[in-house]
Specification:
There is one protein chain. The chain has 2 domains: about 160 residues, Tetrapyrrole methylase, N-terminal domain (Cobalt-precorrin-4 Transmethylase, domain 1, 3-Layer(aba) Sandwich); about 120 residues, 2-Layer Sandwich (Methyltransferase, Cobalt-precorrin-4 Transmethylase, Domain 2), CATH 3.30.950. Helices cover about 30% and strands about 20% of the residues. It has 11 helices and 12 strands. The longest helix is centred in the first third of the chain and has 12 residues. The radius of gyration is 21 Å and the shape is globular. The two termini are about 35 Å apart.
């Protein structure tokens, strides 16, 4: 039996419980709202996510969520837990700890908002969290958000599809150099589809080298969009065949999104948002001490016997 079938069978054999009460023991049951916060601009948060933030007892947030959302849109007495990740850097939160937090707080009857940067289900590890919630029979909802690709494209004035340019879009990631095989590289180089790469700025030179090696056309452009939809957005834009001669070895401020295709040439004639030339971080980088400092002001009134698993804290 496959792992997926075995998992589905295990779920089907479990009794279901209603939101608000565990009907088997009469114990209060909370709920988890898995919500996308949008790519940066706090005004891109959906009304539905806002309403849940205003009611939530606990908010468990990713790094790539605007501080303005956390400061202005949450209940002032809600518990805020930061569980940021950043390219496996020290201080990034293990997924197992995030799962523990969801079970701990929702299992004690609280309304929990699990706030994710961008959309809730694109490159977000949502499957791990869904499995955890289903296994523990915790009710949940999923609220979509504006994913980084759509926010970055709009704020950089790059239509991802356009007549005569592209009729399809692919969302990809290339954070590991060996994650794509030769036939796939050839397909990417020769397709007319717009390619959007998440979490791929560090190996960008390697990405471009491979596309050039497999024959990407000279009419394709590349746009590198730093900190999209924020006041610190900056776009680097050039024909892909010129990138390595002018930008090889460049380092970009996280988060960075990469758009490759004919449509990327449309940024220059239609740019509406001026570039920021600052290298300041809109989103605070993950640090070992970051979560403790963010949570301290929210937890000082909580019982000292309560344990919180956040950031790099070991599970106890």
């Amino acid at each position: 039996m496959s792992e997926v079938n075995q998992y589905n069978n295990e779920l089907s054999n479990q009794s279901f419980r209603l939101a608000g009460t565990d009907i088997s023991v009469g114990k209060p049951v909370g709920k988890v709202i898995l919500a996308g916060a949008g790519p940066g601009d706090p005004e891109l948060l959906t009304i539905k996510a806002l309403r849940y933030l205003q009611k939530a007892d606990v908010v468990i947030t990713d790094r790539l969520v605007s501080e303005e959302i956390l400061t202005n849109y949450m209940r002032k007495d809600a518990l805020l837990l930061s569980v940021g990740k950043q390219c496996s850097k020290e201080g990034s939160t293990p997924q197992s700890h995030i799962n523990d937090l969801l079970v701990e707080h929702a299992g004690s009857g609280k309304l929990v908002v699990r706030l994710k940067g961008g959309d809730a289900s694109i490159f977000s590890n949502i499957l791990d969290e869904l499995r955890t919630l289903a296994t523990h029979q915790i009710p949940y909802e999923i609220i979509p958000g504006i994913t980084a690709a759509l926010g970055a494209a709009a704020y950089a004035a790059i239509p991802l599809t356009a007549r005569g340019y592209s009729t399809a879009v692919r969302f990809l990631t290339h954070y590991k150099k060996d994650d794509l095989n030769e036939s796939y590289w050839k397909d990417l180089a020769q397709t007319a589809d717009t390619l959007v790469f998440y979490m791929s700025s560090d190996p960008l030179d390697h990405l471009v080298e491979n596309l050039l090696q497999y024959g990407i056309g000279a009419d394709k452009w590349l746009a590198v969009i730093e900190q999209a939809t924020t006041p610190l957005q900056h776009v680097y834009n050039c024909p892909i065949h010129e990138y390595l001669s002018s930008k090889r070895g460049s380092h970009y401020v996280s988060p960075t999104l990469i758009i490759i295709g004919k449509v990327a040439a449309l940024h220059e004639p239609f740019q509406w948002l001026p570039d920021s030339h600052s290298k300041e971080n809109y989103f605070a980088p993950v640090a070992v001490s970051q979560a403790a400092s963010q949570v301290a002001s929210r937890t000082e009134k909580q019982s000292t016997s309560k344990k919180y698993f956040y950031a790099d804290s070991p599970k106890t």
